[in-house]
Amino acid sequence: MTVRSLRQEEAAERAALLSVTSYDIDVDLTALVEGPAFRAVSTIRFTATAGASTFVDCCAEVESATLNGAPLPPVQEGRLALADLAGDNELVVATVQNDTTHGRGVHRAVDPGDDNVYLWTSFEPDEARYAWACFDQPDLKAPHAFTVTAPATWTVVSNSGDPVVEDVEGGRRWTFEPTPPLSTYNPVVVAGPFVEIRTEAGGYDLGLYARQTLAGPLERDAEQLFTLTAQGLEFFGDRFTMPFPQRSYDQVFLPEFGGAMENYGCVTWADDVLRRHEPTTAEWQEFTNVLLHEMAHMWFGNIVTMRWWDDLWLNEAFAEFACMWAAERATAYGDTAANNMVRDKLDAYLADQGPGSHPIRQPVPSVADAESIFDSITYPKGAAVLKQLMHFVGEDVFCAGMSAYFAEHAWTNTTLDDLVGSLEQASGRDLQPWRTAWLETAGVDRLGIEHADEGLVLTAAGAHGAPHPQVVGVGAYRRSGEVLEEVGAVSVEVHSGRTVVERLPAADLYLVNHDDTTFATTRPDAAGRDVLVSHPSGLPTTLTRAVAMATVWDMLTSAEASAGEAVAALTDVLRVETVDTVAEPLLGLALTAAQRWAPESARPGLEAQVAGTARSMVAAGVSRQAALRVLARTATGESDLAEVREQAGDDLDLRWRVLERRAELGDVDATAVQALQDRDPDPDAWVRSLTVRACSPFADAKEEAWTALVERRVPVQSARVVGPSFWRPGQDQVLAPYAERYVEALPTLHEGGMIPGLALTDSLFPLHAVDEAWVARVREVAAARAAPVVVGALTERSEEVLRMVRTRAL
C-alpha cells in the first residue's frame, strides 16, 4: 500500500472540522502465539461540521468499516474517506495487521532464549494508524479505552492501571479504564508472559515488567529503578505544582524495541538497558537520564502536547533538560552536567556547526519531515538552551511560569506562544528577543578571550552574525604547583561581539562557560590553549575539567587540534578524575580520538597511551570495568588479552570483548565463541557472537554481518551493537566495497519506521575506507533517493566522519 504522510495544512483543516469524543479499541492478540495477526476494532465517536468531508488514517488491512452504520469505500493511500458527516458520528473499523515482524507500529518478538512471544505497540510520530483506524495527529486528543483479549498465560499492560480481568473462550479479556485525553501516539498495548515486580512508593503503585529470561537482571536492578522512579515523580510533581495524576506508573522492558517511549503511565524500553553484566556507575547515569526523560514527558508531551510537529522541541528539548535537572537535584547523580558536557552536548556542538544545523523550532511541512528532526539539535541543544533560559530568568521564576503553563493548558495542545507567554508573565521580562535568537535561529556561537587595550575582552561571534543574548560564566585560574587555583569568576551578559570582562585578575587560564550555563563553543587565548592541552588535570572541579575537555574536543573536530593533543589532554585529566560518571565517557573519548581521529601511522602509539591510562585506572579502582573494556579494545596480542582475561574473572561481558579483539587481530576462535555463547545466560548472546565475527578482517565474516544487518534486518538494538563493530580501523581493504553497498542501501533504511531509519543510517555509516569525495557523493545520493529520516541522520553522521577524515590528515 502506498501511504501518504499527513501535511500540516491537512491536519489544520481536519482539526477545524471535527473533535474526537472517544476511542474504544478492542484488540485481539490470541492469534499471535502461532502467527503474525494483530486484530483490532476501533470505535471512534466524534463531532463534526454537518455535511463536511474528511478522512481517517488507517494503514492496516481493513476487514470492515462503517460510518454511522453505512459501509465505507476501500482505503486509499492509508486513508478512509469520510463523506457527508453528521454532527455526531460513530466510526467503526475492523483491521488486521499481519506485518508484525518488520512493519510499523506493532511488533511481535520471539525470545530466542525460550521461544516465548511478546507483543508491543509504539506509535511516535504517526504509527498508531498501522494498528487501528484513528485521526493520527497530535491535536485531536481523546480518551482511549482498551479491551484486550490475550492468551491465558499472558499479562497485558496499557496506559491505565488496575484492569478488570476475566476468563473468556480462548484466553483472558483485559478491560482498562479510559485514559485522560491523549494524542494518538501516547496510547500503548504490551503483552506477553512477563515477569512482574511491583511496589508502593510516594503514594504511587509502581510496576516493572520484563521477559522471563531477563528475570535476573530485573530483580537485581528493581530496587534502584523504583528509587529513581519515586524520586523523579516527587521532583516533577513539586516543581510543576502538579503531581502525576494517575496512581499507577509502569515501565516495561521489551525485546527488539528501539530506545524508550513515553506512553502515558506505561513507559516502554528496549530491554538491553537491563545490563546482562553488573551496570557501571556511568551506565546507571545514562539509565537515570532516560528514565527521567520519559517521565518528564508525562507533563511535556502527554498532559500538554504540541499542536503540530514544528513544536516537537516542546516535548523533546524540555524532557531532555528536565531529566538532567531532576537527576542533579533529586538523585545520587549530582555530576549530571559534567557527564552531559562530555557526551551528548559534544554531539550538539558538532551538529550545529555542520550542514544539518537548523533552528530548534522550524517549519515541518509533513509528519515525514518531523521524523528527520529527532536529532542532536532538538534534544541536547534544546536542553542546553532551556538551561540557559532558566539561568536567564532564575529558577524560581522558571518554575512559577511552568506551573502556570501546566495549570492553564492541561490535557490540551499548545504552541510556542503559550509557553513563552507563561514565562514572560512569571518573569516580567520580554522574552521575544531570546525566543528569536535561541529557538528560531540556527547555529552555535563561538566565545573566546583576548587581551586588548581596554583589558580582558570576551569575544562572541554568532554563526550568522550577532551572538545570542546570554549569560555566561568566566573563571580565572592560576598555576600553583600542579594545581590551577580559581582566583576569580564572573558572570557576563553577552549582547554584542565584544564585552569587557571586569573584576578578573591576571591568570594562566580564563575558562569561558566554566559553570556550563550556556550553549556555545569556546576558545582560550594562546596561553590558555597550552594549559588545556598540557595540564588540564590542574583544574579544581569535575565540571571545569569537563568544560575544558569539551573545548579540546571541539578543537579536535574543527581540525584546530590533533588527535595526539586531544589524547594527551584527556589522559592527563584521567590521572585525577575520580567521578565514574565522567571518567568513563572521558576514557571513551580518548579511545575514540586514538582510533577514529588519528592518522594510521599515529594510531598504535596513541592506543598504547590510552591503554596505559586504563591500566592506571584499574589499579586505582576508578571506572575499573570501563578501563578493562578499553584494555581489551587496545590489546596488541595474546599477552595483553590474557591480562584482561585474568582481571575479568567470571565477567562474561569482558570475555566477549576479549574474543572481539582477538577476532579483530585476525584470530576468530570459533570454538571459544560457541562455548561462551552456550555458557552465557543472556537470551541475546547470539548478538555478541555475530559481533565477534563482524570485528574480524575476513571477507566472509564481513559479508555475514552485513547480510544480517541490511538484508535480514536483525532487531534495532542488535544493529546498534553489531554495526559499529563492523567498521574497524586498519581494515580498509576488506571494508572498501561496503562503502558502496551503504550507498545502495540508503533508499531502504527507513523501512520499518523512524527508529530503524535512525539507527541503521547511523550505525552502518562507514567510519573508515572513505574520503571527502565519498562523503560528498553519499550526501547527494541521500538527498535524491532517501527518506527524510535517513537524510537527517546521514547529514549529522556524515559531518562527523568528514571531520574525522580531515583531522587524520593533520
TrEMBL record:
It catalyses: Release of an N-terminal amino acid, Xaa-|-Yaa- from a peptide, amide or arylamide. Xaa is preferably Ala, but may be most amino acids including Pro (slow action). When a terminal hydrophobic residue is followed by a prolyl residue, the two may be released as an intact Xaa-Pro dipeptide. This is Aminopeptidase N. It comes from Nocardioides currus. Residues 509-785 form the ERAP1-like C-terminal domain. One of its GO terms (biological process) is peptide catabolic process. The gene is pepN. One of its GO terms (molecular function) is alanyl aminopeptidase activity. GO terms for cellular component: cytoplasm; extracellular space; membrane. Residues 111-185 form the Aminopeptidase N-like N-terminal domain. Coiled coil: none annotated. Residues 229-433 form the Peptidase M1 membrane alanine aminopeptidase domain. Its EC number is 3.4.11.2. Keywords: Aminopeptidase, Hydrolase, Metal-binding, Metalloprotease, Protease, Zinc. Its cofactor is Zn(2+). Belongs to the peptidase M1 family.
